[in-house]
């Protein structure tokens, strides 16, 4: 990621070729204060869904000549509709933990295959205090994530872990995530930490498979 600071209110990001990184940049910019511009955004259904969900939580996002101009929510999640739609699981895995970081209940309406995949994270979310209920083609989420220490399998899906990381930094207290060996896609974990750091969110990584979140952190425009 190349960062080009412009002035006190606008930051321009050069997105890498990784769609995973682009998802993270869009979500972080949508949370942050100020306005960010993300270039080289990959055109895909998953990216469009993430943009749609970020708009739903209050971000102002415009596509101008292939660049995404994102005015963030200043760390607030103000969604008017409590129902989110998706046809694939990528956006849902990235953003469900984030949506669970506030007290407002919400639902995700999707197809049965995505619901089956998302339901595999039920136990992990319940460890953090979230209740979820599966009803036909919808999953309802209630209660708020609470700071917690948790141990996860190292081969857990990286999108869900990324969503969890994004959310834990916002909570009012310290959380710790430990991974059991072997860890899949270690490079992706480095991407998560780099993107979060570019938005002024710090994750301590004192050991190979340990991540510490101090909590009460605020996303700021990249610098």
Please specify the SSE layout and strand pairing:
Blueprint: E1 2-5, E2 10-14, H1 19-31, E3 35-39, H2 45-56, E4 60-64, E5 67-71, E6 83-85, H3 90-99, E7 106-109, H4 112-118, H5 122-127, E8 131-135, E9 138-142, E10 149-153, H6 158-168, E11 175-180, H7 186-198, E12 204-207, E13 210-213
Helix pairs in contact: 1-2, 1-7, 2-3, 3-6, 6-7
Q: Can you describe this structure?
A:
- The chain has 223 residues and is α+β, with helices and mostly antiparallel strands.
- The longest helix has 13 residues, at 19-31.
- Helix 1 packs parallel to helix 7 and helix 6 runs parallel beside helix 7 (186-198).
- Strands 1-2-3-5-4 form a five-stranded mixed β-sheet, with helices on one face. A four-stranded mixed β-sheet has the order 6-7-9-8. It has a four-stranded mixed β-sheet with strand order 10-11-13-12, with no helix packed on it.
- The N and C termini lie close together (12 Å).
- The protein is globular, with a radius of gyration of 16 Å.
- It is built from seven helices and 13 strands.
- The protein has helices spanning 19-31, 45-56, 90-99, 112-118, 122-127, 158-168, 186-198; strands spanning 2-5, 10-14, 35-39, 60-64, 67-71, 83-85, 106-109, 131-135, 138-142, 149-153, 175-180, 204-207, 210-213.
